[in-house]
Design brief:
This protein is α+β, with helices and mostly antiparallel strands. The protein has helices at residues 12-17, 33-37, 42-51, 92-106, 142-147, 236-249, 290-295, 331-340, 383-406, 426-434, 478-486, 499-502, 539-550, 588-605; strands at residues 2-6, 24-28, 55-57, 76-82, 110-120, 151-158, 185-191, 202-207, 210-215, 253-256, 264-266, 279-280, 324-326, 347-356, 368-379, 411-416, 439-445, 448-459, 469-477, 523-530, 554-564, 571-579, 609-610. The chain has a seven-stranded mixed sheet with strand order 3-2-1-4-5-7-6. It is an enzyme of class 6 (ligase). It holds the Pfam family FDX-ACB.
Length: 611
């Protein structure tokens, strides 16, 4: 591997590396050879480097690396820059600018899988790893600066000078003097995946007996047809689904019927808020006839015969005939099975697939997740024991999975629906809209020992009950389970395109996840606007617009002010929007551009007047 060292003072760090096996060292400094050799011990280190076959290059500007190396020798596997500084009494702003230009220069000479190592004195970096931590404005803000050039912080650890044979720091205020490096940290940066380009995507789906195509809502473009549950997938959501199925199959006969479930529904599901559904407009000329619809799988949910008017993107609006939407739940398909009596007593029917729901931006609210729906029918008289066996099996499997991953036994409980009151997560609240719930399945782990709702337990409604059978069903959010079991703090990480995520689950093995993007920078922007007279503000549409414009980099939207103008009665709202990416570099300039675009879209699509 080729290793580039920049800003060497006396070349003692380079000399310590030059004996490493299979490593070609290129050691550089900013000064001329005459100036550098005058530092204590530098001449000896330079001779050692040259004798070992290393390259020593002088007068190298770390902000113009491409200019110092021929095209065939520009690719380095690792770049070291220990204790960079503009010299003399330069302040934090100048040193940030130095780092920004340095990282930009690195993009031209670093191998695709390469690393950039930057050692800083205690407190300079501005990350939580610094102890004590400086105020943000008084730090070098190294993670935000690196993000501007497309780098993420993948590791940070103490700079252990005592383990480097012969190393001596020098260069205090551009002089041949040492400085304090107690508590210094080495920051390891890697290339981020590139920002996604959200070009329009058309998707084909089965609707009745007809294949139709439609344009995917932009917020879902990077999440449609990802195949996480397919047989060749090593994604943790599939592993958890397979483990749960295997556990249940030990007590019940199991039938998997997920392959034929349609993605689109027609009409409107009863009880579900219009703004919570992703409405779809079919491609021109593809609306199916009622005859073809009747030949397909009958939709078991009672629909009213209207959809919702849309804007030019087919997203929002008022009810109109013949509208279609992405399935928000697998419950209708489960009810079809129950209604048709298409099962034997004691047999488990397992349905699984992605479902789509518009929702507010919160840490555990997902516009798409993988649902596992289990239906069990038992003969009357045996229902209590069978249902208890069914629930115990789910709890035992989850307990076993979590202990196998973390070594800690989680708190898994069934809580009566009435105990939750109004304090429902978006997942639980939406499930409540779909129909009566008997129990919530909650998994408690630190820092949420009281339990996060990951599933709901229902019995069949009265119109689907029979004299012979009792039917119970369980809906499980596989994405939430993957987060809780594998220690994934951000749901967006499940959908990352960065290969380092799946690389932590080889062959589908469940492990505790270690983030490859540490301390990602966040940027706050405020937006305020006047509401149209006499109209209610649709917050879900507001949050969905933020998701679309930012490519899911908005992590929080908080209402800061609700003002009513005296005399006119006009209302104004002010929100604080926080941008932060969990898996890729997000610089302050990109976040600012997103905020400007968001303001434009708010005025155009939500009918508000910006302030």
């Amino acid at each position: 591997r080729r290793v580039l060292l920049l800003g060497e003072g006396n070349f003692s760090f380079s000399a310590a590396l030059c004996g490493a096996q299979d490593t070609h060292v290129v050691a550089t400094c900013y000064e001329s050879e005459e100036e550098a050799a005058g530092r204590g011990g530098a001449a000896r280190s330079i001779r050692l480097l040259r004798d070992s076959g290393a390259e020593v290059v002088f007068s190298v500007d770390c902000t113009k690396l491409k200019e110092h190396f021929l095209p065939g020798k520009r690719e380095f596997d690792r770049i070291y820059f220990n204790f960079p500084h503009c010299g003399r009494k330069a302040g934090v702003v100048k040193n940030r600018q130095l780092l920004a230009r340095f990282f930009e220069s690195c993009t031209e000479v670093l191998a695709q899988e390469g690393e950039v190592h930057v050692a800083l004195c205690n407190g300079q970096g501005g990350t939580p790893a610094d102890q004590p931590r400086r105020e943000w404005h008084n730090s070098w803000q190294i993670v935000a600066v690196a993000a501007g050039a497309g780098f993420i912080l993948s590791d940070v650890h103490p700079f252990q000078a005592e383990t480097i044979d012969g190393y001596k720091c020098t260069g205090y205020r551009s002089q041949d003097k040492s400085f304090c490096i107690e508590g210094a940290l080495n920051h390891v940066f890697t290339r981020s995946t590139a920002p996604l380009c959200f070009t329009p995507v058309s998707c084909k789906a089965q609707l009745g007996s007809q294949k139709v195509s439609f344009q995917v809502p932009q917020v879902l473009v990077d999440k449609i047809n990802r195949g996480f549950l397919e047989g060749n997938s090593s994604h943790p959501v599939r592993t958890i689904k397979e483990k749960l199925s295997a556990g249940l199959s030990q007590a019940f006969a199991l039938q998997n019927i997920s392959s034929c479930l349609p993605l689109l529904h027609q009409g409107h599901p009863d009880g579900v808020c219009h703004s919570s559904v992703f409405w779809i407009t079919l491609s021109p000329g593809e609306a199916p006839s009622s005859e073809k619809m009747s030949q397909g799988l009958a939709n078991p949910v009672s629909f009213s015969h209207f959809g919702q008017d849309t804007d030019k993107n087919g997203q929002e609006g008022c009810p109109v005939p013949q509208q279609f939407y992405l399935r928000p739940s697998l419950l209708p398909h489960a009810q079809a099975i129950i209604k048709e009596r298409a099962f034997s007593p004691g047999t488990l029917q397992v349905l699984s697939g992605p479902v789509f729901r518009k929702c507010r931006i919160t840490p555990l609210s997902m516009p798409v997740f993988h649902e596992m729906f289990v239906v069990l029918a038992v003969s009357r008289g045996t229902e209590n024991s069978c249902i208890q066996m069914f629930l115990d099996n789910i709890k035992t499997t989850l307990n076993s999975l979590h202990q196998g991953i973390s070594g800690v036994k989680p708190s898994i409980s069934l809580q009566e629906a009435t105990r939750f009151g109004t304090e429902l997560s978006d997942f639980a609240a939406f499930e409540w809209q779909l129909g009566e719930i008997q129990h919530f399945l909650c998994v408690g782990t630190d820092p949420e020992p009281s339990g996060c709702c990951v599933g709901v337990i229902r019995t069949a409604p009265d119109e689907l009950k029979s004299r012979e059978l009792v039917v119970v069903s369980a809906s499980l959010n596989l994405d939430l389970l993957a987060m809780l079991l594998c220690g994934i703090s951000d749901w967006r990480m499940l959908w990352t395109w960065d290969r380092r995520f799946l690389g932590q689950f080889p062959g589908g093995e469940l492990r505790l996840f270690k983030s490859f993007s540490l301390y990602p920078p966040s940027y706050e922007h405020d937006v305020s606007f006047w509401l149209p007279d006499g109209e209610e503000f649709d917050e879900v549409a507001f949050h969905t617009l933020a998701r679309r414009v930012s490519g899911e980099t908005v992590v929080s939207i908080q209402l800061r002010d609700n003002f009513q103008q005296p005399g006119t009665g006009r209302r104004s709202l002010c929100y604080r929007v926080t941008f932060q990416s969990c898996d890729r570099a997000l610089g302050c300039r990109e976040a600012a551009e997103m905020q400007l675009h968001f303001r434009e879209e708010i005025g155009q699509h939500l009918g508000v007047t910006l302030r």
